[in-house]
Inverse folding.
């Protein structure tokens, strides 16, 4: 059987697949087989017509033998001498073959119904002329269709009912079976012999009846066995197709999740680079404009700081875009900022007019780039939130602490005295929590009882890609 592997395409950093999707796998492709088998599977009516033709051929050829057998039986005195026996027996034989071939054309649509009808026709043939003829083969073909479609229990129940009905009919009414046809075929030819008496019909013979019953049983079991094997192959092919489709769905879902993760990563990086830098630049520009008349030198310094901040943001933007390009290593999502010196980050916000006091800025950060990036981004996001949503805050305290296992960043503000930029979208807090969770840490962001906000992030010194610490504390913050 030819095999077909489901190729799971890998996704690059942009979330696009590197290979076109595979065409759907079908049962015909899984089943394979010879050209004739594929033709039959594609056009089942071809097999139906072939089976009907074979049944008609068996009926036609068998009718010549049964005619001779009926003449032989009459010559042996098993039928009345002056009665035309061969004609009704042969006609019943041919009509049974024709009816059986016609019913077999419908066996795929209603296999059980066709089996019942064929059984009825066979019983009628035995009752009228005492012959079963080609109807035994027809019943076997119908049982094949039942076994190929229905469950095993249903198949055996139908087989039992059919065999019981036909066995009783054979035992009661059959006169000319296969053994009789073979035995009496040539009895009417050769030297003339006059029987001493003529019978109304052949005498009952348990041996001959048992031969017909065993032949019928063999045909029925053969049909069920072949049909069950066909059903097993079909179910196996369906299972393989379903597995393939499940793999395809899993592949598509994985690709969709990868694209969603990439979009979230891009949004987080762009937010950190653009929102932070622009907030500082806007504050510096406003301060420079306000102090332009009374303190030109201070305004000039503020403008220079705007330029430095813009250049730094532009460099960070180029690094983000470079990391997302086709030639980048997408396994490492960490894009190091141009400035990882915490003193520089805090000084930038101080220049923008924020009354910030900091401790622990000279703390040695871990060598791991992802941890250093997370500390820088979280600190920048927390101070940006103060700048945007708590303008005029009397005090902003920054503390960076290092323990043997963790790095802690804490930003506490006293609350703004002027109206901020609105409630915000909450993306900043979500981004901080995501960064911490990816490293196995967590972020607390909550309002203080006396006013203001407190943001505290705890990150492991060495990233632990587990959920133990990230599940330790997960609190939904209000959008700031």
């Amino acid at each position: 059987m030819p095999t077909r592997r489901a190729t799971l395409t890998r996704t690059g950093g942009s979330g696009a697949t590197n290979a076109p999707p595979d065409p759907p796998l079908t049962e015909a492709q899984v089943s394979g087989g010879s050209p004739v088998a594929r033709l039959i599977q594609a056009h089942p009516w071809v097999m139906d017509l072939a089976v009907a033709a074979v049944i008609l051929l068996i009926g036609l050829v068998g009718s010549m033998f049964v005619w001779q057998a009926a003449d032989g039986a009459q010559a042996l005195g098993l039928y009345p001498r002056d009665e035309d026996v061969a004609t009704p027996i042969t006609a019943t034989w041919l009509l049974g073959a024709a009816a059986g071939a016609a019913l077999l054309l419908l066996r795929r649509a209603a296999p059980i119904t066709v089996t019942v009808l064929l059984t009825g026709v066979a019983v009628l043939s035995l009752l009228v002329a005492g012959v079963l003829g080609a109807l035994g083969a027809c019943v076997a073909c119908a049982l094949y269709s039942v076994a190929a479609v229905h469950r095993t229990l249903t198949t055996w129940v139908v087989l039992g009912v059919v065999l019981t009905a036909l066995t009783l009919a054979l035992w009661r009414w059959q006169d000319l079976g296969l053994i009789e046809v073979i035995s009496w075929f040539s009895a009417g030819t050769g030297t003339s012999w006059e029987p001493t008496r003529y019978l109304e019909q052949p005498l009952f013979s348990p041996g001959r009846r048992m031969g017909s019953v065993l032949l019928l049983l063999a045909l029925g079991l053969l049909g069920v066995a072949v049909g069950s094997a066909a059903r097993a192959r079909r179910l196996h092919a369906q299972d393989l197709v379903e597995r393939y489709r499940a793999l395809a769905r899993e592949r598509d879902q994985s690709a969709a999740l990868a694209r969603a993760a990439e979009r979230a990563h891009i949004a987080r990086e762009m937010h950190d680079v653009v929102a932070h830098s622009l907030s500082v630049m806007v504050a510096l520009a406003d301060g420079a404009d306000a102090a332009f008349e009374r303190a030109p030198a201070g305004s000039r310094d503020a403008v220079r700081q705007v330029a430095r901040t813009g250049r730094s943001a532009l460099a960070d933007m180029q690094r983000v875009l470079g990391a997302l390009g086709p030639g980048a290593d997408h396994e490492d999502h960490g894009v190091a900022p141009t400035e990882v010196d915490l003193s520089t980050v805090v000084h930038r916000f101080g220049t923008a007019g924020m009354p910030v006091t900091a401790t622990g800025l000279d703390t040695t950060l871990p060598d791991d780039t992802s941890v250093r990036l997370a500390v820088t981004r979280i600190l920048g996001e927390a101070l940006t939130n103060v700048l945007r949503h708590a303008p005029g805050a009397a005090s902003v305290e920054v503390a960076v602490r290092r323990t043997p296992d963790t790095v802690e960043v804490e930003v506490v503000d006293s609350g703004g005295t002027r109206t901020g930029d609105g409630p915000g979208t909450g993306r900043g807090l979500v981004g901080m929590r995501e960064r911490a969770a990816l490293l196995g840490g967590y972020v607390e962001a909550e309002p203080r009882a006396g006013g203001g906000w407190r943001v505290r992030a705890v990150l492991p010194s060495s990233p632990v890609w587990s959920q133990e610490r990230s599940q330790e504390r997960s609190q939904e913050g209000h959008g700031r």
Q: What stands out?
A: The CA atoms of residues 392 and 446 lie 19 Å apart. Residues 1-19, 330-334, 465-480 have pLDDT under 50 and may be disordered. The two ends are 62 Å apart (CA to CA). The longest strand covers residues 406-413.
